[in-house]
Amino acid sequence: MYEPIKAEIIRLYDDKFIRPCRYAEWVSNIVSVLKKNGKLRVCVDFRDLNKATPKDEYPMPVADQLVDAASGHKMISLMDGNVGYNQIFMAEEDIHKTAFRCPGAIGLFEWVVMTFGLKSAGATYQRAMNYIFHDLIGSLVEIYIDDVVVKSGMMDEHLGNLRRVLERTSPYGLKMNPTKCVIAVSAGEFLGFMVHEKGIKSAKAVKGQVIADFIDEHHKEADYVEIVPWTVFFDGSVCRHGCGIGLMIISPRGACFEFAYTIKPYRTNNQTEYEALIKGLELLKEIGAEAVEVMGDSQLVIKQLSGEYECRDNVLKTYHEAAKQLLGDFKQITLTHIPREQNAEANSLAQGASGYPPMNSEAEVEITMIDGVLLRCLDKEEAKVVMWEVHDGICGTHQSAYKMKWLLQRVGVLLADYAGGLLYILQKLSRLSKVPPYQLVYGHEAVLPWENNIGSRRLTLQDQLTADEYYNLMMDESEEVAQSRLRALEKIKENKARVSRHYNKKVKSKTFEEGELVWKLVLPIGSRDNVFGRMQLRSYSGRRRPLSTSKSFLIDQESLESMAQPSINKAINRDAITEEVVAIFTDSNVIPERYYRPDEVHAGIVVGYDEEEEAYELPVVDMARLLDPELAEAEIAKLGSACRNWGFFQLVNHGVDEQVVNDMKDSATKFFSLPLESKKPVEVRENSIEGFGHHYSRAGKLDWAQSVILVTQPIEDRNPELWPTNPATFRDALHKFSVETTSLTMRIVGFMATELGIDPEALARAFRGRRQNMSIHHYPPCRHPDKVIGIPPHTDGLGLTLLLQADDTPGLQIRKDGRWFPVPPRQGSFVVNVANILEVLTNGVYRSVEHRVLVDARKSRTTVVMFHDAHLDGMVEPIPEVLEHDGAEARYRSVGKLEYMKGHFAVRSDGTRFLDSLKI
Ligand SMILES: O=C(O)CCC(=O)C(=O)O
Ligand SMILES: [Fe+2]
After folding, report:
1. CA 865 to centroid of ligand 1, rounded, Å
2. What ipTM was reported for this prediction?
3. Where is the RNase H type-1 domain (predicted)?
């Protein structure tokens, strides 16, 4: 193939039709087609370019009419534009769009002249020809794109006409192909038809010739079939005068040909449809078309041929087989069912051929409704009969006026202006597209009693039928049943698909391993829950097991379970809040032994309580500045210094939706203000730390606090039964807050990575998709704030903590250089602190700092704390990129996540942190 392609490219280049392309935006491929005569034709596949090209609406002549106009002349000359399209230059600015690539080293070229295959080529050429010959067209010349026929009466006149036509060509540089010109003949082929003095021969009589001409005329298009298919629209029409078929064939070049045949004797509708298609396929087969796009409005024919429906009717089977066999002769076939409106041309051709009379002109008043339903206006007497029928007859007894109107419509009658006294009842003459069940069963619509009484249009028409016609119509109807059933089935399928699309949108897929038990939680009927949906799936096998089999997930789950074991060795156990506890919190005058821990309160110096103390400034990081390209560098440095020196900062302009923050604050505050019995449903349960309760911390002492602990991410790890529903806003608020804080965490982590000088992804992957837990703490006021502690000194165990304070009560203190620094509450901010795992990940560059909560004497304090987990594929260890960047040795030994969690929660008798034991 290579050499012939090269030769063709050289020829096109030498003829200056193409030139090498330098800057291509659109590049098309070439398709080489070996012609039947052994020659190679090089085509460019412009399909993509054509898709992007607007349609040229220039009106094209109708081939049939031209053939008519060319016939009936004594003398004609037929001429063919010499490589027609290539005589027109491309607009310079469009040349580059026609670029096409050739195989091997031949290269990239573009068309300087218009070429075959471009969408608007036919219209452009026709426009040019119409421009050149506009005043001669019709009288002495007919033109269809590059086909020209000069027509005249006598020889003398003809020579004069020929001269006028040819003289027109030279100023425009238009050339004719002498080998294809037939001069001064009495008959000749034009557009595939034999044109001569006596007119065109009837399609049937010259069938062989017509087809032969059609083939010859369009052989070059047939070569092109690999790229653009031929399209055939077919339709059959049956009326009492006969049957007709209509075909509209569109060539790959866009030329449109219409064919209409009358068929005798009588056929049924479906038979006629099949005949139309068969005729169309025969025509296309004979012109050598290889790819065909078949369009028809007969669902039965299209679906039977595509194999979707079976053909059971014995008579139809013959047609079906014939059509199938023909289809097998094409290389590429597409069958498309189109609505009748889109098949208008074939439809009107078929109707014409069947002798379908123009719409009747009977004196009845007919009205077409907006939905296309044709209605007949009844006179007063007729109206009364119908009214009676509806009122007392078939539709049941004594309907109200409103219901009667509705029923009238249902039986195909429209009652208009009832209230105005003027009675118009309009009888429906054409059916709605919906098929009534009666018809689906029996093949035709039920005749209603009133139709017999007052006579419907249907009955009148029926009376006029001959016995044969009646028989034919009955046959038609019974065949039509199949069609109607298919249509009905189609409707049902469409509906089902629509419904399932709707439902599937809401379904999240989950995979389970074989043999896994699944625990299905179904919320009470009618309960809707934005957070959990109607039901939640979880695998279950004795103990609760995770759905996901990913390593990280298993670790999280197990660590949670191990934490949940009741054991005095755990740093944190949780206890239910009883009425007694509520009483202690409320009174707070007498501090019971188990809350009494003044030594812990007094351990360490608190900065800032004494006026004399140095002023200190806690780090504040501004997200707006982090996001501002001009200020980011300085702000990132600030973030770095906060994490390195304090392990903590306050984040302002954090970007979390204010509504979400406020809803969370409100819901949290409201929850704690509820009486105890309203909180009981979400009370902490045995073997779990989730739920409402309070910490039973070290040395058997209790914290002066109550809290709700919940897993918030990933969603499938949530335990919906422990999510408060009171206040009603709680779940929704927490869900939204959890989503927002998760993404805020990822954003913060991104800036941290930049600050650490590592690829943001190296740190982001440690946090992405990991567990998020939440604690909402409520610290009741205590008359003896120096004797109780809200939360004793600790570092946070996971990766990064985000804390939102719902009020302005102080309490949080962080330890730096052995002293406690109170963190003043700050509106519109989050407290962000580095937790243990992040310290390990950064190889100790960022520090996880100790903090505690003291209690206020007068005011309660409520905080919402989100803990974000992190690990490197199940390992807690310094990120290699950090070590590389700092050229440092690992300062922490690697430990599996599970071991890490166990270590973190175990109580150490020497009071050290597990984190410290990891230090190398
Ligand atoms: O409520 C606070 O201010 C701090 C809470 C805290 O540190 C924690 O839950 O780990
Ligand atoms: Fe903490």
Report:
1. 6
2. 0.99
3. 226-359
